[in-house]
């Protein structure tokens, strides 16, 4: 699939609750006034004045963790010693307007350090030391008028992206030696991009959850349910079953590689029978994606696109077992569904594929079902008496079933 839904904003940048906003404001005001980080005793006293428990407020800050690393909006000594400074991370600064230029300064420095490291004349026979001095960095980037430039060494030392660089103080003042880790942040654009890259680097993707056992009729039923809802909503069939024999294959168990390929083949034929927009010249999943994009509200699109992507991954697995040259795509698609390459336990793999397909079809059905029904047939007024006619409840405006072929691309 060409359309992949990504998160709009990192969770650390979402709006904060009142107590957490007060905490950041206390730290930020102190820094802007003194040019230095406030100590924990001061922050605790200010929160006390507001009737807030400092530990509860700190505990309410958003964060992410992996192994030894915990990154949040604030950095502090967890021992709670009164003399220890309380510092804002780059993510914390992003919540405060007065720190906008400081965040921009940090990102510019990260880019510069990454570029210097990449442009260094490395040699095959010896280790080349790449380093930048404080005067050089400030002059080259024009940071001499930045109000909080003196905090830059501490920022570099405290952010996971840059804390691997060696820092030291000598006759030339502060010196930074950028490490190879910075290549992951080269070309970083803004703070959301920075946090996204940091998560991808420090946190491995979570494995797909093991699916629950499914009924042998589950996949067939999921196709049927979606087709019924589609007809009620858009006034036409979605699924055109290629043959009863193909659908029946989906209910059979799997124990061998041949049976696994056979079930995937039957599933692929069912996918080919999906026709979301008869007048559109495209593959079944691309048709469905484009048609539903024109019909569903914006809040429904991420779930639907993710579901269609899942179905597309199943197609890659099916093609990998039956078409020469498609094994690479299958090797990529299998982990996305929680499967290993190559498949060893074909019975378990088929149960996992079934579950993902059922969940994807059910997701699409739920979102389509939330739309007002365009076509509904009135029931007879009374038993044994002829119907007084059929009524159709249409949407007052916008594309309905008759105009469904006019979709946006």
Mean pLDDT: 81
Question: What share of residues are in beta strands?
Answer: 5-15%
User: Which term fits the overall shape?
Assistant: elongated
Compressed to H and E, one letter per element, the order equals HHHEEEEHHEHHEEHHHHHHHH
The radius of gyration over CA amounts to 29 Å
Total count of strands = 7
Q: N-to-C terminal Cα separation, in Å?
A: 14 Å
Structural class category? mainly alpha
Query: Any low-confidence stretches, pLDDT <50, length ≥5?
Result: 1-7, 321-327, 375-409
Spatially, the strands of the biggest sheet line up as: 5-7-6
Helix content: 40-55%
What kind of sheet is the major sheet? Answer: 3 strands, antiparallel
Number of helices: 15
Question: Describe it for me?
Answer:
This protein is mainly α. It has 15 helices and 7 strands. The chain has helices spanning 18-34, 40-49, 54-59, 90-93, 100-119, 134-141, 152-158, 191-202, 218-234, 244-249, 257-272, 284-295, 301-322, 327-336, 346-369, and strands at 63-66, 69-72, 74-75, 87-88, 132-133, 166-170, 173-177. A 3-stranded antiparallel sheet has the order 5-7-6. Strand 1 and strand 2 form a beta hairpin. Helix 9 runs parallel beside helix 15, helix 11 packs across helix 13 and helix 12 (284-295) packs antiparallel against helix 13. The longest helix is centred in the last third of the chain and has 24 residues, at 346-369. The two termini are 14 Å apart.
């Amino acid at each position: 699939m060409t359309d992949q839904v990504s998160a709009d904003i990192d969770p650390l940048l979402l709006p904060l609750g009142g107590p957490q906003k007060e905490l950041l404001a206390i730290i930020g005001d102190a820094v802007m006034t003194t040019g230095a980080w406030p100590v924990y005793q001061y922050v605790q006293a200010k929160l006390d004045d507001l009737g807030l428990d400092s530990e509860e407020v700190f505990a309410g800050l958003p964060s992410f963790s992996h192994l030894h690393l915990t990154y949040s909006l604030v950095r502090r000594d967890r021992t709670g010693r009164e003399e220890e400074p309380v510092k804002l991370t780059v993510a914390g600064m992003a919540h405060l307007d007065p720190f906008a230029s400081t965040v921009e300064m940090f990102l510019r420095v990260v880019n510069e350090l990454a570029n210097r490291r990449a442009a260094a004349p490395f040699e095959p026979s010896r280790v080349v030391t790449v380093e930048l001095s404080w005067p050089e960095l400030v002059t080259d980037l024009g940071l001499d008028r930045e109000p909080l430039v003196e905090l830059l060494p501490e920022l570099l030392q405290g952010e996971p992206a840059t804390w691997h660089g060696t820092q030291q103080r000598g006759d030339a003042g502060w010196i930074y030696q950028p490490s190879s880790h910075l290549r992951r942040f080269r070309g970083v654009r803004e703070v959301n991009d920075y946090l996204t890259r940091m998560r991808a680097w420090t946190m491995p993707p979570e494995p797909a959850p093991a699916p629950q056992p499914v009924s042998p009729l589950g996949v067939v039923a999921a196709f049927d349910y979606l087709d019924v809802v589609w007809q009620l909503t858009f006034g036409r069939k979605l699924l055109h079953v290629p043959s009863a024999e193909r659908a029946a294959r989906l209910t059979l168990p799997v124990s061998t590689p041949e049976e696994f390929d056979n079930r995937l083949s039957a599933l692929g034929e069912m996918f080919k029978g999906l026709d979301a927009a008869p007048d559109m010249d495209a593959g079944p999943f691309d048709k469905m994606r484009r048609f539903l994009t024109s019909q569903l509200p914006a809040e429904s699109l991420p779930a639907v696109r993710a579901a269609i992507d899942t179905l597309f991954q199943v197609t890659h697995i099916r093609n990998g077992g039956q078409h020469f040259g498609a094994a690479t795509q299958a090797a990529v698609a299998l982990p996305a569904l929680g499967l290993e390459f190559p498949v060893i336990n074909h019975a378990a793999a088929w149960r996992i594929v079934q579950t993902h397909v059922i969940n994807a079809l059910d997701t699409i059905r739920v979102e389509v079902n939330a739309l007002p029904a365009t076509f509904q047939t009135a029931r007879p007024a009374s038993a044994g008496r002829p119907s007084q006619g059929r009524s159709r409840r249409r949407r007052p405006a916008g594309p309905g079933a008759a105009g469904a072929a006019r979709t946006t691309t």
